[in-house]
Amino acid sequence: MYGLLLESINEYIKEAYGESVWKLIRERALCPHHSFVTHQVYGEHEIPKIARAASEVTGIDLPDLMDAFGVTFVSFVGQYGYDRILRVLGRHVRDFLNGLDNLHEYLRFSYPKLQPPSFFCEEESSMGLTLHYRSRRRGFVHYVKGQLRQVGFLFYQTEISVEVLRETDHAEGLTHVVFRLYFNNKAFKINRHNFGNSCSDSLLPVRSDVFFEVFPFNVVFGEDMLIRRVGIGLQNIFEKLEGRRIEESFTLNRPLVKFTWENVLNHTNNLFELVSRLPIERTGLHGKNSVSDEGSGTLMHNKVHGLGVPSIENGYGNGDAAVGNGDQAAPLDTSLELMAFQTITGDAPEGFNTLANENDRCLTLKGQMMFMEDWKSVIFIGTPIMENLEQMFMTGLYINDLSMHDSSRDLVLAGTQQSAELKLALDQEQQKSSKLEESMRMLDVEMKKTDELLYQMIPKAVADRLRKGEASVETCEVFQEVTILFSDVVGFTKICSRITPMQVVSMLNSMYTLFDQLTEKHNVYKVETIGDAYMVVSGAPEKTRFHAHYVADMALDMLRSMKHLQDPSTGETLQIRIGVHSGMVVAGVVGLKMPRWCLFGDTVNTASRMESSGQGMHIHISETTKAHLEEEPYLLVERGTVTIKGKGEMKTYWLKEKVGDQTGEALDTPFLANSSENESDDGSRDSSRISSYNPVFSEDVIKKHRDAPNITIEEEVVQEKVELDSVT
């Protein structure tokens, strides 16, 4: 099917539901195309797949959705000027419906690979008619219903009610649906009135030989389906057609019915398309396509008399230089003649013979079937359909074989002159479409990268709300039960004073890489880092009653992972302090620039104080957190009452280990240290700096610059910590 149908669905979904819904539907339907080229052919199952996915995403029933697609298509084609064809297809609704089967024939030059359905009208009355719909595609019944109603409304200001009387699926893959259309069929009354008042005028008699000369591609056959007479145009190509059954010589492509006498009489208002069963082979320049009783045939074109000029039949094709007798010469290759013909017409494709496919070498006739009462026969008045002059040449036809009383000759010549321009325009459109598809794929990749980066800074649910235009302050939410963890490096200021800035960056990156892996493992959310301070939370943004357990497991793994990290200045193993507290917080995004998801409340401050009042390589937890863990297999040791700045006296505990925990220590880190004993100081809090949570973020990592690799920040770091200490 062509992209015109798919693009109308694309536009409808985007307009009705938005770009994000269309993207979701594409992903669910496994459709790689962001948009569709109107003249490009796509798979037959694209529309059903998209429709099913759209029904699942939007919650709308599939029949209603297909109906809406059909309604939209009628309006959508107006963007490409096809509404002008629909407007002039018939004076009244009945005229449009009776000519509906021929509609796609008018578009065959723009869409040569079109596989249209077939329509047939019967049982017409002043209240409507019965419409037969046949198609090789299944699942488009409601799509057609929507189209019919919209055509009546848009072009004839007539309301059409469509009822499905019967739907049948045939074994050969054909779907036959019988519609009953109800509408005000006033044109039927007018036509019946005019028919009753008509009078028969005496007509001039016309001899049959004159009639057959005017229509050179006619076929006359009787009720027994035997061919009685063929036009001179067919006689020039085929022999012995007369007396054979017509369905044995030609196949019926349109309408989509069996080739029987009754079906021909019932569809006289339809366009018929006949295709010869035998492929036509050009093997010489003299003779005809002889159709034997066995069904074999060979084409020999009109002979060429030379006036002393040798022809191909005289033997040049096999290297014989002598001018031979045409009756004695064997059929030869006509590639040289075809090349000369293509050079003259400018219709030379790649290769000598592009009609290698037998289907392309069959003669196609399109026309009308008329019942002749006097003959008790049906006459098919047809016209050969040629895509280009090369095909005409290969099928043994010439311009003078076509009727001079209609536009057949003009259409063939004009179509050839315009085909090159149309092909070039189509190729350019397809190239642009390919580039657009590639750009859209690259855009998808970049958008995924952007989303991943955004979701690392802001929770996905919050980020999606911000994308929809919600104010940042509206994303704030109260979480009644969460557990927060703070950690920092023991003696970080002294370490920074002894190493270069790039070593500081490398050390922190190694530590944070380890910790980030642990957050994924233990289902906790990394809130932020402030210098060497690392903050995580469980219970927000995803609520869970096991928040304290997840954080406790995270803290224990953080201590285990420190044996992989060392102080670049001394080579000793780094040490950290960890503080944990549970309680209520308010979380959300505040501000406009550099938005970050922040936590607010006394729980945050208390957790920070647990860390600052702790000791190196210990996990300091509050009594609230201890209450969540005491029924679980954790080893807790009471520390006693501790004076906490801003809180007063608090009873706190040490989290030692998880009983029965056999957690492995195979962690992936870019900063591995040699195994060494943990030689730490007394583990007391460094008095030169105090770690406290602040929703206003600072940058402690300076990016390396190639022009200034030796820049130092030791004095700046020390000064910043002194200022923080003086404030507290």
From TrEMBL:
Domain of life: Eukaryota
Keywords annotated in UniProt: cGMP biosynthesis, Coiled coil, Cytoplasm, GTP-binding, Lyase, Nucleotide-binding
Domain Guanylate cyclase: 483-611
Entry EC number(s): 4.6.1.2
Broad class of where this protein is predominantly found: cytoplasm
UniProt lineage: Eukaryota, Metazoa, Chordata, Cephalochordata, Leptocardii
UniProt source species: Branchiostoma lanceolatum (Common lancelet)
Protein name from the UniProt record: guanylate cyclase
One Gene Ontology biological process: nitric oxide-cGMP-mediated signaling
